[in-house]
Design a protein that fits this description.
about 0% strand; mainly alpha; Leucine-rich Repeat Variant; globular
């Protein structure tokens, strides 16, 4: 199957679930970064999975073209569908997929929804599988692009007690005083999520950075409060 075949199958599966009455509200929630079809997440996921059932997995090159084509579609659900496919086929991907097309996707029509979805679908699993990809995470962290910085800080998401706190605190320290909301949130959430396993390290990070943005500090403190 060609990339066009895959994209056509996904679109054909999604369109019957469109709810125009919900589309405006969904677009508003995402600050109108893109129009929506009005498809709820469970329906979208089921439709995407149904569209690929009994199909052999695409090659990495084909998947590259599929996700770029879906990203070029105006409605946001197509970007979500691309992430659904990436989640499904992430075990087949090489580390090169992080630089291209993932970095390109992180900067295309970016908002927290797709940036975080790409993080869980591609960035976190591939950086865990390919330790050398940490070099690229540092490039993103120093890039000056808020979405690449956010993806870099959160690249260990879901690793729990396996989180490398040295890397997390070093990346977070670069942007501790950064007032950019989405970067501050990334730091705060990362600290909050790891506080269960590394409360001493999280407390030390907060204490060592009196200039830590209020947004990041608040989220980190919430995590520590749950630990007790």
């Amino acid at each position: 199957m060609t990339a066009d075949d895959w994209v056509g199958a996904v679109k054909a599966a999604l369109l019957p679930h469109a709810q125009p009455a919900d589309a405006s509200q969904m677009a508003g929630y995402m600050k109108h970064v893109a129009p929506f079809l009005g498809i709820r997440a469970p329906d979208r996921r089921r439709a995407v999975l149904a569209s690929i059932k009994n199909r052999p997995p695409p090659s990495e090159e084909c998947l590259h073209d599929i996700v770029l084509a879906l990203w070029a579609e105006p409605e946001r659900e197509y970007q979500y569908a691309a992430c659904d496919l990436l989640t499904r086929f992430a075990p087949l991907l090489s580390d090169g997929f992080l630089a291209d097309p993932t970095e390109r996707l992180l900067k295309a029509k970016p908002w927290w929804d797709t940036v975080d979805f790409l993080g869980s679908a591609v960035v976190s699993p591939l950086t865990a599988r390919y330790p050398a990809a940490l070099d690229l995470m540092w490039q993103w962290c120093r890039s000056g692009d808020r979405w690449l910085i956010r993806a870099a800080i959160q690249h260990q998401r879901g690793r729990r007690g396996r989180t490398d706190m040295g890397v997390l605190t070093a990346m977070s320290a670069l942007h501790a005083a950064d007032g950019e909301f989405f970067v501050s949130k990334a730091i705060g959430w990362a600290m909050r999520d790891t506080s269960r396993w590394f409360p001493c390290e999280v407390r030390a990070f907060i204490d060592d950075h009196p200039d830590l943005s209020p947004v990041a500090r608040r989220e980190a403190e919430r995590g520590l409060a749950r630990v007790g």
